[in-house]
Amino acid sequence: MNFFESLLLLMLVAVILLQVARRMHVPYPSMLAMAGVLIALIPGTPTFAFDPHIALALFIAPALMDAAFDFPLGVARRFWAPLVVFAIGGVLVTTAVVAYTGWAFAGLPLAAAIVLGAIVAPPDAAASTAILSTMSIPRNTDTVLRGESLFNDAAALLIFGAALAVQSAGGVDTGVALHLTAAVPGGILLGIAAAYLMGWLNRYVADTLGGNLLQFVQTFLLWIIAERLELSAVLAVVACAMTIAGRNTARSSARMRVQSYAVWTAVVFVLNVVAFLMMGMQARSIVADMSGDHLRDAIIFATIVVILVILVRFAVCVGYNRAYAWYARRNNRPEPATLKQAILASWCGMRGLVTLATAFALPADFPGRDTVVLAAFAVVLATLVIQGLTLSHLVRWLGLDRRAEGVGELTVLRGELAATALSKLDGFEHPEAELLRSTFRLEQLAVSDPERTHPFNKYRMLALKAVMAQRDLLERFRSEGRVNIDEYNLLLEEIDWRELSVLPEEARRIEETS
Fold it and tell me: How far is CA 84 from CA 78, 92, 109, 359, in A?
């Protein structure tokens, strides 16, 4: 079975597992991790050489762009303290502890041990948000978890690149030191400049398929240019995405925004599938080439690394929470987060795509590569399975599932948005304005009448029946030849938008699982 056939097989399995994960409220990366293990156990699984430079650009660039675009700089400023502690402190402490263990017990060179620490240091928010999106945890915890994943990735990748450069050069000389010093500010400046250039270019391709394609071309091109200039490609992509998100998200084309979110979500999912396929293939090859004693030592070392990664995460999260709580009490301020929230954040330390991609990026002649890669795979598998499958139960046990309160709070926000829209219609008395007023007043009624927030209330049921009648009539138009293909697709899109507007996202999730 060749790579393409293996990829198709895993894609099919991934679709099935995604449905199982959705109905069982299990993070889909946990399912993919187990699928990767199954791939490794299949006899005759092929092994493919993977260019290390391609690994980082292919997997990391789009994942970082997608995550950073959802976390503009203004949000980062509000939560700078926990983000700094988790992204810098957490990554540095994890890297240091794992590096010492690799140097002292596995006999790795110091730079190679630091590379291992940087590989396993950054948690992946995709696993935790996949399950937390079906719940409603405190908003500050949710925001920190999403934001720290982005900054964790950036910090860990910087350490990874620096340690790998030192290991490749055989030590730190003047040239390596100057390169590492200029890479960080240079990457940030390049990313900000690229964001303004992209904003100018996107005006000419908005609402077109070329616009979606250009987003990917720009992302990969930015990464390549940064590497060619020997700047930090990671920080260039992060700075670019956060600058774009902070400048023109609200002013960008609605159609372009909806298309982009759908396309990028699908692409990141496919990258996860490919990464776990590659994990299974490489793990099988590594285990097959190891002697019995070497394999036993590698498994013991990987187990130690897994335990250390989990314990360090707990120490950093709970330690910071208790220290900040003491500081807040001493200054007569309310605690920003409870101990229960800190425990939840501690358990959201699953590793994923970034850890896999950086493991793939190790050159073939890297010292102790098999041991390092196997340890990285073990951390990903153990955290995704153990923590991922128990996360929802922990949320309920801690009493942090706020789904009932979350629906009410979201309803209030919708009411405020509707009130703002109505205020802009003051002074307009023509029929079109009155029609708009009636639509926004219905949204306001949901605030005063909680029953209207239910997805099957009278208004939405009537609206959906009307939409279905329109869709049936449109199908008859097509069968009678009264519309061509382009006209049919245009009218169908308008009807689809109308259906989406009367059935909010949380209502659709309830409808799908009922």
Answer: 12, 11, 29, 25
Identify the segments of the chain with pLDDT beneath 50.
452-453, 455-456, 505-514
Q: pTM value? A: 0.79
As given in the structure block, the two tokens for residue 347 are 């358990």
How many Cα atoms within 13 Å fall on the side-chain side of residue 3? 11
Place of tokens 């995550």: 67
Tokens of 510: 């309830």
**Would you list the DSSP string of 408-436?**
HHHHHHHHHHHHHHHHTTTT--SHHHHHH
Q: How far apart are CA 124 and CA 77, in angstroms?
A: 21
Q: Distance (Å, rounded) from C-alpha 225 to C-alpha 236? A: 10
Radius of gyration of the chain, Cα coordinates, nearest whole angstrom:
25
Residue 100 is predicted with a pLDDT of 94
* Phi and psi at residue 352, to the nearest 5°: -155, -120
The pLDDT mean for the chain works out to 79
Q: Report the alpha-carbon distance of residue 58 to residue 230 in Å, rounded.
A: 18
pLDDT value at residue 98: 95
Residue 366 phi/psi, 5-degree rounding, is -70, 135
**CB-based burial, 88-113: b 16+ in 10 Å, e otherwise:** eebbbbbbbbbbebbbeebebbebbb
Residue with tokens 């205020």: 423
Within a 13 Å sphere around the CA of 53, how many CA atoms are in the beta-carbon half?
6
Among 508, 510, 486, smallest CA distance to 499 is for: 508
Tokens 């720009």 -> residue: 218
Of 229, 228, 231, which Cα lies nearest the Cα of 239?
231
How does pLDDT run across 456-508, given as a tens digit for each residue? 466 677 777 888 898 889 888 888 888 888 788 888 888 888 777 766 544 44
Q: How far is CA 94 from the centre of its chain?
A: 21
What are the tens digits of pLDDT across the range 253-283? 666 777 777 788 888 888 887 887 778 777 8
pLDDT value of residue 455: 43
Picking from 208, 197, 194, the residue whose alpha carbon sits closest to that of residue 65 is 194
Write the DSSP string, 137-193: --HHHHHHHHHHHHHHHHHHHHHHHHHHHHHHHTS--HHHHHHHHHHHHHHHHHHHH
Half-sphere exposure of 23 (CA within 13 A, CB side): 8
- The whole-angstrom separation of Cα 253 and Cα 261 is 12
Distances (CA, A) of 359 to 129, 188, 510, 513: 23, 25, 39, 37
Q: Please, what's the b/e burial string for 3-36 (b: 16 or more CB within 10 A of its CB; e: otherwise)?
A: eeebbeebeebbeebbeebbeeebbbbbbbbbbb
- Alpha carbon distance 20, 449 (integer Å): 35
Residues 6+ apart with CB under 8 A from 100: 113
Say which DSSP state 430 is in.
S
Residues written for the chain: 514
Spell out the residues 6+ positions from residue 14 whose beta carbon is closer than 8 angstroms to its own: 28, 31, 32, 35, 269, 273
